Structure formats: C-alpha cells, structure tokens
Amino acid sequence: MVTEEAAVRAPSGRSLHVTPLVREGDMVAKGDAVACLRHAPDVCFVAPIAGQVARLSLLPGRKLSEIVLFREPDGAVRQHDPGQADATAGLRRLMQGAGLWPWLRRRPFGGMPAHDEKPSAIFVMAADTRPFAPDPRQAIAGREEDFSRGLAALLRLTEGPVIVCQQAGAPLFDRGADDGRIRTITRGARHPQASAGICIHHFFPAGLDAPVWDIHAEDAAALGTLLDTGELPMQRLVHIAGAGLRDARTVWTHPGADLRQLTQRVVAPGPHQLISGSPLDGHLSRWLAPRHRQITVLPRETVHSRPHWLVSALTQSAGAKPAIPTAALSKAFGGALPAAPFIRALSAGDDETAMKLGVLSLLEEDLALADYVLSETGQLTAQLRGMLARIRTEFDA
Amino acid sequence: MIRGLWNRETVALMLLAAYLPLALFWLWLGGTGALAQLALAVLVVGIWHLVFMLMRAQAPSLAALTTALAIAMLAPEDLGAFRLVLGVSFGVVMGELVFGGWGRNVVNPAIVALSFLGFGFPAFSWPVFDAPIAWAAIPAALIGVASGAMPAAVLAGAALVATGAVLTGILPEQVLLAAGIVLVLLVADPVTSAATTLGRWINGALYAGLVTFFAFGWTGAAPVQIAVAAALLTSLAAPLLDEAALALWVAQRRRRHGRT
C-alpha cells in the first residue's frame, strides 16, 4: 500500500547536516536522491515514492527535519548500475547512493554509520520479539536468493563475521562458499531475546574501536535485489496494532509512509495517538521512521484533574524512585547482563562500570522493556542516552 | 506510552503477601501481646516515614510494614515500650531513611534495629519460635520466589548449606527454626542482599555457614541472636560478594570476546 504522502526523515541518533538536492515543487522518481550528507556527499537520502516535493523543512544548521512528498501515480523508478558493486568501494558507493545506508545502524552510540566505517561484525536481524512485531520470516519469504546475495554483499563490508539472528525453523539462506563467516544464531521467542542490542551484547559486544552494525533481514534482502536489478525495493512488511484500533492488520508499505492514511479505516472512535514503532520503544510521529516496521495506535490519555496534595506527596514527592532488583528486572535484560548493578551504574552516572557491563552494545530500544517493567516513563532510556553522549564526547571526540 | 507494574510499591506489596502466612501464624500463636508489639512497631516506623516525607519530600513506602513485622517478631521479649521505640527509631532512621528510603539502603533497617536492641539491652531474652511458625516460613519463601520479589538464589544457597549442616548434625533444631525465619524476613531482602546471581548463591551460603559456625562455637547465645548476627554480617558482606562476582563475570567476557 503506497500512501498519498510520504516523508524522508533522518534516522534516529545524532542529527545530521544535509545538503538538499531538490527544491519544493520538483518531480522525483522513486529512489531518487533528495538530500545528501553535507560532509559525506556519497550518503544520500532517497524518495520512497515517486512524486512531487511538497515541503522541504530543515532545522537550524541545515539539519534534516523532513522532506514531504506528494505521490504521482505514474512516476518513474530510479535505476542504479549494479555493475559498480564488484569492488568493495563500489558496493559501498552503491549502497550509499541508492539510499540503503540509513537502514544500517551502528553501535556504540547508535545512528547511521560513517561513510567510511569498517564494522567488526554485522548482525542481520531475522527475528523480532517486540510486542506486535511482524515476523521477518514472512517479510523475506520467497526472497531467499536475494537474501543470500545480500548476506554475501554484507560479508564484503567487514572482515569479521556476519551473524544472522533467527528463530527456530528452516534455514533462511543457502550456505554457499562463505568460508564460515556467516553464522546463524537461534534466539527464543520472548522479548528481549531477539533485541539487536541484547544479541550483540551476548555474541559480539561492540567496543569503541570495534563498531558493530545491525540491519533488518528485509533490508538485507533489499540489498540483494538492488545488486540484482539495480533498483532498491521500497516495500516493507509493517504490522499495525494497538489498543486504539478496531482490528490489527499487516500491510506492505514503504519507509516514510503516512501513518494517518494507513490507520484511517481501522482506528476505534475517540482520541488516539499514532506511534511509529512498538509500544515499548516507539515515538509519536506522523511518518513511519526509516527502520521501523510497526505502527502502534493507542487511545490518548485524558488529562486528569490535579490530585490531592497529600496524594501527590505520597506518590510524586521524590524524583525517580529506586529500582528494586527482582526477577522481572533480570528477565527484562534477557539474562544478558547483571541487571541491578547495571541499572545502579546507569542511574549513578558511573560510565566506567557501565562500559565494563556492556553499555556500548546497547541502545534505547534495548532498555525500553526494562523501563516498561519498572513502570517508568523513559527514565532509563534517558539516562542511557545521557551516558552514551558523555562517553562519546570523552572517548570518541 | 504503556507502563508495566514492577515499581517499588508493587515489590513491597509482593513481599507483604509473602510474609502474610508467617505473620498470621505468629499472631495466632502470640495473641494480643504480639499484636500490640506489631502495632507499636508499625506506628513508630510509620511516624518516621511521615517525618521524612514532610521534612525531606521522601516518598514513604509500604516496605515500612515489612520492617515493622520483622522487628516485632524478632525483637527481645518484654523490652517495654520505651526501649522498643528507641530501637525501632534507630534502625529505621539510621538503617534506611537517611540513605533515601527503601531501595537505597545498604543494610536492612530491621537488622540494624535488632542488632541495636541486642547489643544495647543484652539482659532481655530473645524470643523462641515454635515449629509451626518456622514451617510458615516455607510458604512465605515460595510466594516470594514465585512472584520474583525474593532472590531465589539466596534461599537456595542457604538451603544447600543448611541441609549439609543438618545432615552432619552440627546445626541444632532450634537454631535451624530461628535461622529459617530470619532468612525469609531479613536475609532474602531484594534490596540489601547481593544483586548478581553468583553473589546471591554465596550470600545465602555465607549466611547459613555463619549460622552453623555460631551455633557450633558461640556458647550461651540464643538461636535468634545467632541468626540476626549472621544476617548482619552477611548483609555487610553482600557488596563485596557482588564486586567479586562482577569481576569474575567481566573477566570471563574479556576472555571470550576480548572486550566487555
């Protein structure tokens, strides 16, 4: 399902300085570059649909906010030359020029990898355990050949392993001559076992000088298609769910899709809020974020009148309440790390202990479940973001 | 966004639910005397929580009730109201509230209060528990472990060592009963026991080992006194156990991955 409007947004993480390549009113083909990074013009953001540039909004400092497109029914599709990908530098240039680069994410610190970064390992996430997440197996069903080609291409980007995280079942790709560098790990079905950060922490921890990338299996298959046909497929499997819907459903749509249109006929009456991402780690948005594959619709909380002063004193007087180490908290980290010492290090701002415990492999989405379990509203994720920013300025300036 | 339910007060409620069988058996066998002691302890602990809420904007916690129950059950007998109030106040204020309330304390406030009473007023005799109350500690432990509020590894570690000690015959039955109650009420506290799995196993084993050691070599000590002393030393050692367990975990990861 292609929405009438779509937006190009920057991936989460550090805000990026860009150079717009189009002006308002221009016609673009599907896959055409609409902006590129100012300091690395190779890395492009591309239009997910063919259409007309409706609005181009930049934040101060020429940071990308959003570029909104109106769909044109019979627009063109941008063709790339897959022949240039025979050399590794050409492969990188193709991925960056075709707009696949923002679908990659690096750890530590998160965000899109730098244009010349060499990862120590690449995780391909063919499992997703977040609540209401679509099954990646379904997304790449029938595209095994593309997926294998994508894995082989990813293998050329790194000297380390390419690790496919999947759930129990049939193998997702045929094992060719990959000299054993493509590894498969099987994860359980309960969140956060297939959370990318928890897997990375468990099998190949990221370090300051050992970045680890992760990419969704569907995007790896898209890379395979790009190398085969020269055209980057934009469709992706997205699950729409949540308490604010009449019924949940799964749709094929594209990055930057308009959430209002996708949910138009299925929302329940009454005020609601649209969240791009899962109910645990999503954010309020009108557009589907570049890496997200879920849309959550929740009823909007009505604003209550102010509680009695004694009730406020009993419940809200102190700032954050301490986390009590329980079995629920350990399970929220999937048993990957000692939960209570990690949370204590995080809330005390003890960077060194947190780094020993593996904070560099983790991002906000990996801590979202712990936040949920502790009934907090984003304290842990905010503390993690603050700590990562601090570590970045200190060690990675 | 959505929120789960394991905040501080839920854990306190779960602990209260776990202690319910123990408390009911104790009140049933102890009668009005026990009830009066519990009421006094609850009153004093509640007043201190209220004082800290009004003076320092520190949110009170339902964990106050578990503290009061532990003190009321284990305090020396026939202390009189004044000494009990003094002991409870010292334990709750110096053991918990000055650190920022439940969840930030280093030692269990009930252990501090009981040690204070034991050291301060050695002439008063420690309570003796009948077998039914000690048996009630087993459902308490089961509820605590099933709800995840009590660390299972602490209980398992202690049970392992205690079984060995009972089989070799160096742990008398009276000490075993008192140690079981103290284990559930004071040692298996999620906040002040060790926080890593390995640390918790050692924590429980250390407690049972200390109880056995004291029962073996401390002549003239009452069973509850032995158990409380062991609990105090164990909770003081817990951060060290955690530190050691973490160092081991980090070293293992470093060997496996080359970094942490």
TrEMBL record, chain B:
<feature type="transmembrane region" description="Helical">
    <location>
        <begin position="12"/>
        <end position="29"/>
    </location>
</feature>
<dbReference type="InterPro" id="IPR004338">
    <property type="entry name" value="NqrB/RnfD"/>
</dbReference>
<keyword id="KW-0285">Flavoprotein</keyword>
<feature type="transmembrane region" description="Helical">
    <location>
        <begin position="35"/>
        <end position="55"/>
    </location>
</feature>
<feature type="transmembrane region" description="Helical">
    <location>
        <begin position="204"/>
        <end position="221"/>
    </location>
</feature>
<feature type="transmembrane region" description="Helical">
    <location>
        <begin position="141"/>
        <end position="162"/>
    </location>
</feature>
<keyword id="KW-0288">FMN</keyword>
<dbReference type="Pfam" id="PF03116">
    <property type="entry name" value="NQR2_RnfD_RnfE"/>
</dbReference>
<feature type="transmembrane region" description="Helical">
    <location>
        <begin position="106"/>
        <end position="129"/>
    </location>
</feature>
<keyword id="KW-0472">Membrane</keyword>
<keyword id="KW-0813">Transport</keyword>
<keyword id="KW-1278">Translocase</keyword>
<dbReference type="GO" id="GO:0005886">
    <property type="term" value="C:plasma membrane"/>
</dbReference>
<keyword id="KW-0812">Transmembrane</keyword>
<keyword id="KW-1133">Transmembrane helix</keyword>
<protein>
    <submittedName>
        <fullName>NADH-quinone reductase</fullName>
    </submittedName>
</protein>
<feature type="transmembrane region" description="Helical">
    <location>
        <begin position="227"/>
        <end position="251"/>
    </location>
</feature>
<feature type="transmembrane region" description="Helical">
    <location>
        <begin position="174"/>
        <end position="192"/>
    </location>
</feature>
<keyword id="KW-0597">Phosphoprotein</keyword>
<dbReference type="GO" id="GO:0055085">
    <property type="term" value="P:transmembrane transport"/>
</dbReference>
